[in-house]
């Protein structure tokens, strides 16, 4: 039986001080390499290289089949592609500026069954930790979705001011494909509830925003910086 | 370079007769078995059984890691779990009636890159085919999401009346885990734009709704029944 720990956070969007929302405490990120390691650890006749090669190749095949219009149903999720945007008349053409092909995903039955069985432990209100509530692309006004390299993002939250003399403090974007951490050198506004940050020239990809700070709300500085990741993936297109 | 065909459908939600939306023409559903076949067909040193075994095991490991709070990043999608529902006060407990652990998914960078490169061909307005627009659970009023066994669902659309003397005509739910097709024996309302159907006693799972009919809007009956799947997965919890 699996168990997750959940932190509670004051919901900043309601005036009720007793209104909290939960976040599952993150355990880290696993990639095909880690899945292959886990399979070897469980015990298997296959070499790790074999497992990893097959997982990587199957991912490539799944992507190539999805973009041909196939649905892919695995033990983790069901996925298919669709098209967004309105067409004006039955003879309208595809226009990349108006229409977009996107993939959508639904949890598999197996995953949903396991989620139902998962034990939840509320480990209390995370009142002293920084909380990132929302990330807004100041150019497009997109919230918690796309970001634009070379433009400003607005980060709203609590206790997110970047402070301290540790060389690691700052705002980072971590490429989820390569795990590369890119530091944002220019912080335009630096307040406990709001940061405005100039993004560097990031390649297209999926990113996790992290803030690293020694800021503490009781006017002291923490001895060690702490790292707070934002839970939503930010996308550079 | 991949290419998808897109049908256009009259948008029933707007009065504008020139307002259309697109649907990618479905190519079928692929499971791990089909992915393994595709890999063998490409050419590989591995046996199909090896590939299938590794894909099934990796799915099980991914599910078990997700429900422990890990994020999983593959070449297809990025996934993690979260918790829905409000907590009333910092000492509130987890209540399965109010709170729910769910998984969310984002397309990987590789998938998004391929979607961008995909050629789209508009193959015209699909005006003669049945169109399923919306499926409503009459008990919970949930739209295009959960359905309740032993209760009525409302299907809205165009040309969806069940007609014809072929033994195959009717409303079906296809279990996406097992591919089992379950026929709904009791059709309460049967009109061109609306069906009300009593659901049989379905096990928990993800289902695709299909209507099979010889109905035609010009008062004739089609010689052969045609099968129309609904694009959204319907969930029995």
TrEMBL record, chains A, B:
Domain DUF4469: 132-227
Gene3D superfamilies noted in UniProt: 2.70.50.70
Pfam families to which the protein is assigned, alphabetical: DUF4469 (PF14734), HU-DNA_bdg (PF14848)
Span of domain Bvu-2165-like IHF-HU-like DNA-binding: 5-124
Domain of life: Bacteria
UniProt-recorded name of the protein: Uncharacterized protein
